[in-house]
């Protein structure tokens, strides 16, 4: 059990405190109507990503040149068979937007998870041990921060090649610094607390102290950073795909759809606008959710 103060906890006090915090956190979240809307939108996206073959009306790569550049159904010349119209090869835009959700959510979640694991391990080690491990690890973080993340990602992808897992790996490796810095700061403030000193005194190993006592105390800020990193990774993946350095062209992504549609903005606006709207709304919803989680993690929010 992780202690949060020097006073010895009474039996059952920690579970009762945890049970008391959960309803307060839920109430704080529900008071934020914008966050509720964002969470509902993300839930819809998740359902669309998982059940894309059932939701999408057509194969996203099926071509029909006779129906190329068909406007949306509500516009003159549109077709009820293609609600959002078709692209320059006659592919259904609604199906492609739905399937593009899969790549965006997978890349965002995968990159945030990988970066979170790397950054948490580095931050725990640097903050707990201090001294030369801290100096070495933080200098590595400074070196990475000296390079713009998107340029570093472009260089790595250009060297190793494109691919879904390469993109996740690259975005994860280039995004760990923010996690490490926050975890290090939190751990440095906790390592001198009585519960850590007492754990050392009874022979608890350093790894066990970090895992059982320190890690649970940094999960709240990690959740906030992770949520915001998902949005950044989604935009970064779209940027790489827009430049032709993301996932292969046969895999539907919002970034590649934007690249294909830029030539038709003047005549067939829907080819680029709909994936752009999907990308914007998804990033906005994730950022709003991250802000809400930050408020929930703040104990002062429960008293407002």
Précis, in short:
The chain has helices at 13-31, 33-50, 52-55, 93-129, 131-145, 149-160, 164-173, 177-190, 194-201, 206-214, 219-242, 254-261, 270-297. The chain has 304 residues and is mostly helical.
Structure in words:
The structure is a single chain. With 304 residues, the protein is mainly α. It has one domain (43-65, 83-303): MetI-like fold (Orthogonal Bundle), CATH 1.10.3720.10. Helix content is 68%, strand content 0%. It contains 13 helices and no strands. Helix 4 (93-129) runs parallel beside helix 13 (270-297). The longest helix has 37 residues, at 93-129. The chain is elongated. The two termini are 29 Å apart. The model is unreliable at 1-20 and 300-304 (pLDDT under 50).
Radius of gyration: 23 Å
Number of helices: 13
Q: What would CATH call the class?
A: Mainly Alpha
Number of beta strands = 0
Beta-strand proportion: under 5%
Helix content: 55-70%
Low-confidence stretches: 1-20, 300-304
Reported CATH architecture? Orthogonal Bundle
* First-to-last CA distance: 29 Å
Listing every helix as H and every strand as E from the N terminus to the C terminus, the arrangement reads: HHHHHHHHHHHHH
Task: Kindly give the count of domains.
Answer: 1
Quaternary status of these chains? single chain
CATH topology: MetI-like fold
**Derived structural class:** mainly alpha
Mean pLDDT: 83
User: Could you give me the name of the CATH homologous superfamily?
Assistant: MetI-like
Note the overall shape.
elongated
Main sheet characteristics? none
């Amino acid at each position: 059990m992780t202690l949060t103060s020097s006073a010895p906890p009474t039996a059952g006090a920690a579970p009762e405190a945890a049970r008391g915090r959960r309803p307060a956190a839920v109430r704080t979240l529900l008071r934020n109507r914008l966050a509720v809307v964002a969470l509902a939108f993300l839930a819809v996206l998740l359902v669309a990503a998982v059940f894309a073959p059932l939701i999408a009306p057509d194969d996203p790569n099926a071509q029909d040149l006779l129906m190329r550049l068909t406007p949306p159904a509500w516009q003159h010349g549109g077709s009820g068979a293609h609600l959002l119209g078709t692209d320059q090869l006659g592919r259904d835009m609604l199906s492609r937007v739905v399937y593009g959700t899969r790549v965006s959510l997978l890349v965002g979640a995968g990159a945030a998870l990988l970066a979170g694991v790397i950054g948490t391990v580095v931050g725990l080690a640097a903050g707990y041990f201090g001294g030369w491990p801290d100096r070495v690890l933080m200098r590595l973080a400074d070196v990475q921060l000296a390079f713009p993340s998107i340029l570093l990602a472009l260089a790595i992808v250009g060297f190793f090649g494109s691919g879904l897992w390469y993109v996740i790996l690259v975005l994860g490796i280039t995004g760990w610094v923010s996690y490490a810095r926050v975890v290090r700061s939190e751990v440095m403030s906790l390592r001198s607390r009585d519960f850590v000193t007492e754990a050392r005194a009874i022979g608890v190993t350093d790894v066990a102290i970090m895992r059982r006592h320190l890690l649970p105390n940094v999960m709240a800020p990690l959740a906030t950073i992770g949520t915001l990193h998902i949005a950044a990774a989604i935009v970064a993946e779209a940027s790489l795909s827009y430049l032709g350095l993301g996932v292969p062209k046969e895999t539907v992504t919002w970034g590649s759809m934007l690249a294909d549609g830029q030539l038709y903005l003047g005549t067939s606006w829907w080819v680029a606008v709909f994936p752009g709207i999907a990308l914007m709304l998804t990033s906005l919803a994730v950022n709003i959710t991250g802000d809400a989680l930050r408020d929930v993690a703040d104990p002062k929010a429960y008293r407002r």
